[in-house]
């Protein structure tokens, strides 16, 4: 390593301290460490070019074979050795648990810079956006920057500004506050009516254990949530396992057979440690049934399964179940011992990784899209990565939006027939389970993100287009990210790559389709009106006002 461990001393004028956070899972930290080490070496060279020493604030762990902060306690202990006014860089090339470092960052008094490598590999960009969103919610000032190799002019100019001014100025001219008076009257009226209905008949988010993977930015305090007419039913993932045990093998097989009849493919093997097996999929089918039955028992309007520490050691992955829940066309689930179909005729919205901000968004989208007669199938995705693409009529930056299998089949080319289930990566999912993998169909989308800032709920919302890329390019992008997961090739309207990174308050973004541009504008206006009526501050991104 080009950087060395540093204990607490009075900060030098030419010295900057570096910290990094990792996973709780040792296997993930070990796999991701080479990319982190490479990034830190390049970052060290960039600081040296500016006349500054980048010094590691915590040591490489010889026993664990990585240099990440891997727990909240470790993070707190590391910050005990950091001078409170030191220049501090948080750098990540991997997904990371923000709560490992958030306590120290909240109390740090010196300038903070968050940095990630422009790569889809593990991915550092998603980890960066999660920490940024958490710092925004916490009210902590910071600057942020990203780069592929830390030698480009954009990065070096931003680094120079931070070193001398302790801040970085980004272009956020694409963001405009919603002016309710300028909304089309029809959309304004419908959105207001839907909001009043929600406040009258309050909704419930079923939360299967809160605070997944340290995503502080994904938790909405009740005091902010309840005025919108939305409440939480705090459920335990152990209850989900118990309910799974009450689902019969016959019921699970019926769900699997339904999917096969729809044309869905399963990439089965014989080694459960590394390959997908039928038994894993049948357990996922039981989870799907169990989640619907628990939701009905508690009257939930949407549910979120954490599927991380604890549950990952008890059952196969939840992602196949999540994708089924989010789809308008899904296997029927019946009340236990009866022929009563539960939540018939549409999705039971699921918010992946218990991202409550995404849960509120999915609930609002479901109400608006249903009222407009549109397909309410929706999902969140990670803002994973992207590159400029030229060819096939395109000459623009195309984002890779990707999530671990929770996307609905109605979003895919050819639906279930275009979907495949592959075993989840063993370093994250020790008991396996399949994803719900597909390529999102081309079409108009509305993207959005609800977040907490300044003690209030906000929503960024904009338009985009899911585009079709050649098979070879799609496969290349899958190889650069996670090939087992569904992918959406996305062009955001009126928002550049760097503007999105500078503004976005989360690792996740919600997406829903509209059949054409005119309908997309109408759906966006209706959703914006409903959000505003619920008391959520709406910010239009890439558009000045809905037409």
Find the CATH topology of the largest domain: L-fucose Isomerase, Chain A, domain 2
Largest sheet: 6 strands, antiparallel, barrel
Strand content: 15-25%
Low-pLDDT stretches: none
Strand order of the largest sheet: 11-12-16-15-14-17
Mean pLDDT figure: 96
Explain the layout of strands and helices.
Elements: E1 15-19, H1 26-49, E2 53-56, H2 72-79, E3 88-92, H3 102-107, E4 112-117, H4 124-138, E5 143-147, H5 153-165, E6 175-177, H6 185-200, E7 203-208, H7 222-225, E8 230-235, H8 237-245, H9 249-261, E9 265-266, H10 278-298, E10 302-305, H11 319-325, H12 356-371, E11 378-391, E12 394-402, E13 420-421, E14 443-453, E15 456-466, H13 471-480, E16 487-492, H14 497-503, E17 508-514, H15 517-533, E18 537-541
Parallel strand pairs: 1-2, 1-3, 3-4, 4-5, 7-8, 7-10, 9-13, 15-18
Antiparallel strand pairs: 6-18, 11-12, 11-17, 12-16, 14-15, 14-17, 15-16
Helix pairs in contact: 6-15, 8-10, 9-10, 10-11, 12-15
């Amino acid at each position: 390593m080009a950087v060395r461990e540093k204990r607490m001393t009075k900060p030098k004028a030419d010295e900057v301290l570096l910290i990094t956070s990792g996973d709780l899972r040792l296997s993930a930290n070990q796999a991701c460490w080479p990319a982190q080490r490479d990034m830190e070496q390049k970052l060290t060279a960039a600081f040296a070019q500016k006349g500054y020493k980048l010094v590691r604030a915590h040591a490489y762990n010889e026993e664990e074979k990585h240099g990440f902060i891997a727990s909240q306690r470790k993070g707190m202990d590391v910050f005990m050795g950091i001078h409170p006014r030191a220049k501090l860089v948080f750098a990540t090339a991997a997904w990371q648990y923000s709560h490992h470092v958030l306590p120290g960052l909240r109390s740090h008094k010196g300038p903070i810079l968050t940095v990630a490598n422009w790569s889809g590999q593990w991915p550092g960009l998603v980890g960066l956006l999660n920490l940024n969103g958490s710092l925004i919610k916490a009210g902590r000032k910071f600057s942020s920057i990203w780069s592929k190799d830390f030698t480009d002019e954009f990065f070096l100019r931003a680094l120079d500004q931070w070193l001398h001014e302790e801040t970085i100025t980004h272009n956020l001219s694409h963001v405009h506050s919603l002016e309710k008076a300028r909304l089309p009257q029809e959309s304004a009226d419908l959105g207001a009516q839907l909001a009043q209905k929600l406040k009258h008949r309050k909704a419930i988010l079923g939360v299967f254990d809160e605070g997944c993977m340290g995503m502080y930015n994904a938790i909405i305090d009740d005091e902010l949530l309840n005025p919108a007419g939305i409440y939480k039913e705090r459920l335990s993932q152990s209850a989900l396992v118990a309910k799974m045990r009450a689902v019969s093998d016959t019921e699970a097989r019926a769900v699997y057979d339904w999917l096969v009849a729809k044309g869905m493919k399963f990439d089965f093997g014989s080694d459960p440690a590394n390959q997908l097996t039928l038994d894993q999929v049948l357990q996922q089918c039981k989870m799907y049934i169990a989640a619907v039955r628990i939701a009905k028992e508690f009257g939930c309007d949407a549910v979120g399964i954490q599927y991380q520490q604890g549950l990952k050691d008890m059952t196969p992955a939840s992602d196949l179940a999540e994708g089924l829940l989010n789809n308008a066309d899904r296997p029927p689930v019946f009340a236990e011992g009866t022929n009563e179909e539960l939540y018939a005729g549409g999705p039971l919205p699921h918010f992946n990784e218990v991202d409550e901000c995404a849960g509120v968004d999915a609930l609002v989208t479901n109400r608006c899209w249903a009222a407009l007669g549109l397909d309410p199938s929706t999902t969140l995705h990670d803002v994973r990565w992207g590159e400029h693409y030229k060819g096939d009529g395109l000459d623009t930056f195309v984002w890779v939006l990707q999530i671990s299998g929770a996307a609905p089949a109605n979003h895919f080319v050819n639906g279930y027939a275009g979907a495949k289930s592959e075993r989840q990566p063993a370093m994250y999912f020790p008991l396996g389970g399949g994803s719900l993998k597909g390529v999102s169909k081309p079409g108009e989308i509305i993207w959005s993100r609800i977040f907490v800032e300044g003690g209030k709920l906000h929503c960024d919302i904009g338009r985009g287009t899911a585009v079709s890329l050649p098979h070879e390019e799609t496969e290349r992008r899958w190889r650069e990210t996670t090939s087992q997961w569904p992918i959406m090739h996305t062009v955001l309207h009126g928002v550049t790559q760097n503007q999105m990174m500078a503004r976005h308050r989360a690792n996740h973004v919600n997406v829903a389709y509209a059949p054409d541009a005119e309908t997309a504008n109408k759906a966006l206006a209706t959703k914006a009106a409903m959000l505003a009526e619920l008391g959520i501050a709406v910010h239009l991104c890439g558009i000045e006002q809905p037409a």
